[in-house]
Amino acid sequence: MASAPDYDRVAVSDLDAVAVDASTCTRCPLAAGRTQVVFGMGNVQADLLFVGEGPGADEDAAGLPFVGRSGKLLDRLIAEEMGLGRADCYITNTVMCRPPANRDPRPEELAACRSWLDAKIEHIDPRVVVTLGNVATRSLLERPEGITRLRGQAYPWKGRVLVPTYHPSAVLRGSPGSMAAMRADLVRAKLALAASPSIPSVAG
Ligand code: URA
Fold first, then answer.
1. Which of residues 198 and 177 earns the better pLDDT score?
2. Residue 145 located in a structural domain
3. Terminal alpha carbon distance of the chain
4. Which of the listed residues 34, 49, 59 should we mutate to test ligand 1's pocket, taking the one with most ligand atoms within 8 A of CB?
5. Taking residues 63-71, what's their average pLDDT?
6. How much is the pLDDT for 196?
7. What confidence category does residue 199 fall into, taking pLDDT thresholds of 50, 70 and 90?
8. Is any ligand 1 atom within 6 A of the Cβ of residue 65?
9. Cβ(60) to ligand 1 under 6 A?
10. Could you give the C-alpha distances from 56 to 6, 45, 53, 72, 135, in angstroms and in order?
11. C-beta 168 within 6 A of ligand 1
């Protein structure tokens, strides 16, 4: 008797295949300076996706996003404000290769990496996307304003909810008000998760 298809496994292996393709990407000059592509990590069926800027030195060495000081702070705030851990969400970046000297990714680098990010969003299909900092927020919302202007509210975005917040490195730098603001934004993301149903109603 044929056994039922394992849909969990199908979803995982689909994104695995994208990650294998991405691991040899040479679409932009950042490829030349990387140790390895940092694709993303976490639960591929999560309702919650975090999008940071790009790998730093620690992430480039480990091949995983947010493993340095910023990541430790991010983990702590997600735990304290949302009661969640890495197994409950997926974490990735706007670009998958480390920009030299941790400069901001350039528009052409963001554009080159965008279809990889879009593929992750399509496969994971999160209900809530939290953008961390100026680069991710401007890039996804397609707005020119800075994070201080854009944060503080949830935006409808491509059938999902997008919640912008500060990058944890801004909090580590002691940017005034950023810690309290980031905590409030994570609570906002938690409320958005609670408010948006995971299975669309067909009852009308
Ligand atoms: N900063 C980012 O934006 N992403 C990382 O993965 C690490 C630091």
1. 177
2. yes
3. 38
4. 59
5. 98
6. 72
7. low
8. yes
9. no
10. 36, 26, 9, 14, 14
11. no
DSSP secondary structure string, 125-154? --SEEEEEHHHHHHHHHT--S-HHHH-SS-
> Which ligand 1 atom is the nearest neighbour of the CA of 53?
3
What pLDDT is recorded for position 38?
98
* C-beta 70 within 6 A of ligand 1: yes
Asked if the model's pLDDT at residue 195 lies above 60, the reply is yes
**DSSP per-residue letters across 52-117:** ES---HHHHHHTSSS-SHHHHHHHHHHHHHH---GGGSEEEES-SSPPGGGPPPPHHHHHHHHHHH
199 falls within a domain: no
Instruction: Give the domain range for residue 69.
Output: 15-194
Q: Atom 7, ligand 1: which residue's CA is nearest?
A: 66
Taken in order 36, 39, 41, 43, the sign of the CA dihedral is negative
Q: What is the CATH number of the domain that holds 165?
A: 3.40.470.10
- Give the number of domains in the chain: 1
pLDDT value for 198: 65
pLDDT tens, residue by residue, 77-117: 999 999 999 999 999 999 999 999 999 999 999 999 999 99
